[in-house]
Write a structure and sequence with these properties.
It is a single chain. By secondary structure, the chain is α+β, with helices and mostly antiparallel strands. Helices cover 56% and strands 11% of the residues. The strands form 3 sheets. A 6-stranded antiparallel beta barrel has the order 6-7-12-11-8-13. Strands 2-1-3-4-5 form a 5-stranded mixed β-sheet, sandwiched between helices. Helix 4 packs antiparallel against helix 5 (92-104) and helix 19 packs across helix 26.
Length: 733
């Protein structure tokens, strides 16, 4: 049987073989070749079909863009929507989505342009008009924005987006309770509206209504539990309320829902830092940097975490890299410079690179004829790199042009005394430069032999001129969303800015205080004349610094100040205005250095804006005390020794004619003087241009007169802005 089965298989095989042979023998070889060619062509065509697939349509690009927009990937969404309108220029929805992305990126003018394109193809769209109104608010055109929203509400009273716009106008005007009412009205019309619920949660938190804030957030989570943004906002609210463990859980939920949600990772890192989980904060920051090296906030927070771990060298290196990525991050630069000046040796070659930013800014200030700005930038450059010869000579030239020749000479002598013997400059060029410097110093030395200080045999630059001791304090606060620990850095940097002011000793406490009581106790025990409580409200595009100045002796509030800043350089500008405002409120006081008959020499000069003809009251040493409830000095009538009228104002010292009170002349060296009056403006204008480069001296005025600060504040602008709150509300879409 086996043999039979084998025979059958062989027969089948032979039949197949015979069929195959017969087929080849029947088909013509030319035809066979043609068929093979056709078969190959068909194979190639099948393989090429994906390459020639129909391109994506405008609707497909739009759909993908909406997905990216919902994930807050604004740049990627913008690219997809631009493709959609390239294919279909009449795609109104794509134009509108482009406007929304531009708005979220802070490109408000661009957003308005996209809205104009959308309006061509979707006339009378309230969505377009509402977003236009929001852009007008962001650009500061509040009256125009109000007209837009009022017009919409007149036609459509139940339009919730128009009510959102009216609420944001109230927020910009500081009417938080009114804004809360408008958000509540919007919620009545749409009880599950995400923007209304989240906005009410944060507005309630701003008004210290924690229960209402939690209630609204719970409603938002109930209606929108699958949306990463809602969990992100929940994390922010919990962090604001000090519940950091809940904030961390919510932030982690947000990134679990959307793994590309960079803002949630940024918030998570900030929360971890606030929890003192510095290693974890560094890990999250590294993760963000690996995804995008341009994440400036990640560099800042990583460096701050390293600083908190005690690794200052690593923090400096991280901040240096971060500033190469984002050179306009002023808070990061302030943190870097504070640690550089504290820990890095003067000879460190990196200081030259760090100072270049300020030298560049000084040049820009000079182009704008901003003498005080250039003076500040040169001083910052020299603080970072004291051996920078070019910066010091440029600063000396500024002083010389504005009549402060003695100060100029001191700068040039510093350059002369600190020449680098190992300089790589060619010997001839170096000798020429040094010779010119030596000639200049010699000429000034000769010209200034008859200066007031020389005639009295005084070395003015070694005088102890400290007259005011001031403390800077800040209260313990919740998580910061733009720059973690910014109040601490701000207090320290503000104190550092006072270091060039000879008449003040300003110290910032690195640790926060629990409130006024602790600050008052510390100020009084430290013997401070005044102490200042600082509060910083920072948004992505603007900043408000509030400062309340108290008497260190009585604890009475003597001055409240508010400074608003926006645009490039806002942080530095706000702190400079704060410094000027503090100094402008301090009475001008000094002490008697020497006397010759009725001529007295005092340690105040033109560098402090003193002019010939100024009148001082003379009192015994120790007789002056700060006023109880305002900024000023008081003394008993019996302590009035006479008056001093300035007859010659030098740069650092001045001479005047003394007129005694009473029969006896009781004036001694070391007694004090306090400014009573200044000459009129005409006389003042003849005294030189020191004010063009000096913004770090008390404004010479009567000691008993209180003046309001001249710095522009948020209230002066007609608005009381809340940058952090407005940023949060604006980011909800």
């Amino acid at each position: 049987m086996t043999n039979n089965m084998t025979d059958e298989r062989n027969a089948d095989k032979n039949r197949f073989f015979r069929f195959h042979i017969s087929t080849q023998s029947v088909i013509d070889p030319a035809v066979q070749k043609k068929r093979k060619a056709v078969f190959c062509a068909l194979c190639v065509l099948l393989l090429a079909i994906p390459l020639f697939a129909s391109p994506s349509t405008a609707a497909e690009f739009y759909s993908r863009g909406v997905e990216r927009q919902n994930g807050e990937e604004w740049y990627e969404a913008t690219e997809l929507f631009l493709e959609a309108v390239r294919i279909n220029p009449a795609y109104a929805d794509a134009w509108f989505r482009l406007a929304e992305c531009a708005y979220q990126l802070g490109q408000y003018d661009t957003s308005l342009g996209y809205l104009s394109s959308a309006e061509k193809y979707a006339r009378n769209s309230t969505a377009v008009q509402n977003l236009r109104g929001m852009c007008r608010i962001a650009l500061g055109n509040l009256s125009e924005a109000r007209l837009i929203f009022e017009k919409i509400l007149a036609q459509y009273p139940n339009d919730v987006n128009a009510r959102f716009g009216m609420a944001e106008l109230d927020l910009f005007s500081g009417r938080i309770s009114a804004a809360e009412g408008k958000y509540a009205e919007a919620l009545e019309r749409d009880p599950s509206n995400r923007k209304a619920l989240l906005s009410l949660a944060f507005v309630s938190a701003e008004r210290d209504n924690a229960a209402a804030a939690s209630r609204y957030m719970s409603q938002a989570l109930r209606y929108h539990s699958g949306e990463a943004e809602v969990h992100y906002m929940n994390a922010k609210l919990a962090a604001m309320q000090g519940n950091l463990s809940a904030a961390e859980r919510a932030a982690r939920t947000a990134v679990e829902i959307n793994g590309r949600y960079d803002k949630a990772y940024e918030l998570l890192a900030s929360i971890l830092y606030s929890e003192k989980k510095y290693a974890d904060a560094i890990d999250v920051s590294d993760f963000r940097i690996a995804r995008s090296r341009n994440a400036g906030g990640a560099w800042y927070l990583k460096g701050l975490s390293q600083y908190r771990e005690g690794n200052t060298a690593a923090a400096i290196a991280t901040w240096t890299t971060g500033l190469s990525v984002d050179p306009f991050d002023e808070v990061m630069r302030a943190a870097l410079e504070l640690e550089v000046n504290k820990t890095v040796p003067i000879e460190d070659a990196r200081r030259k690179e760090w100072s270049k930013w300020h030298i560049k800014n000084a040049g820009e200030c000079m182009k704008r004829f901003d003498g005080t700005g250039a003076s500040y930038e040169y001083q910052r450059a020299l603080k970072v790199n004291p051996t920078d010869t070019a910066a010091r000579r440029a600063f000396a030239e500024m002083l010389d042009i504005n009549g402060l020749h003695e100060l100029c000479l001191e700068q040039l002598k510093f350059v002369q005394d600190n020449r680098d013997p190992l300089s790589s400059v060619s010997s001839e060029a170096r000798r020429t430069s040094e010779r010119r410097l030596d000639d200049t110093v010699e000429a000034y030395d000769s010209l200034l032999q008859d200066s007031l200080a020389k005639r009295w045999n005084v070395e003015p630059f070694y005088l102890d001129k400290i007259r005011w001791r001031i403390g800077l304090y800040y209260a313990q606060n919740t998580a910061r969303f733009v720059h973690a620990d910014s109040p601490m850095i701000t207090a320290r940097f503000a104190a550092d800015m006072f270091s060039g002011v000879s008449v003040t000793f300003v110290r910032a406490r690195t640790a926060p205080v629990s409130g006024f009581g602790e600050a008052y106790r510390k100020a009084q025990s430290a013997g401070e004349d005044y102490f200042i409580m600082l509060s910083l409200d920072e948004g992505e595009r603007d900043i408000v610094l509030d400062a309340t100045m108290y008497s260190g002796r009585t604890g009475s509030a003597v001055r409240s100040m508010s400074f608003y800043g926006t645009g490039s350089g806002r942080y530095t500008n706000v702190l400079r205005r704060f410094r000027s405002a503090v100094l402008s409120n301090l009475p001008v006081r000094g002490k008697i250095l020497d006397r010759s008959g009725t001529n007295l020499l005092i340690d105040i000069g033109r560098s402090e804006l003193l002019q010939k003809g100024a009148v001082f009251a003379v009192v015994p040493k120790g007789a002056l005390k700060t006023a109880d409830s305002n900024i000023g000095l008081t003394y008993a009538d019996r302590d009035a020794l006479g008056t001093l009228t300035i007859t010659e104002a030098g740069e650092e010292v001045s001479e005047g004619e003394f007129v005694k009170s009473g029969f006896y002349d009781r004036v001694n060296t070391g007694d004090e003087v306090v400014l009573v009056s200044m000459p009129d403006k005409a006389a003042e204008s003849k005294a030189g241009n020191a004010s063009r480069v000096v913004d770090n001296a008390p404004a010479a005025r009567a000691g008993a007169v209180s003046e309001k600060p001249k710095a522009i504040s948020a209230n002066d602008l007609g608005e009381r802005r809340n940058p952090a709150l407005v940023d949060i509300i604006r980011s909800i879409y």
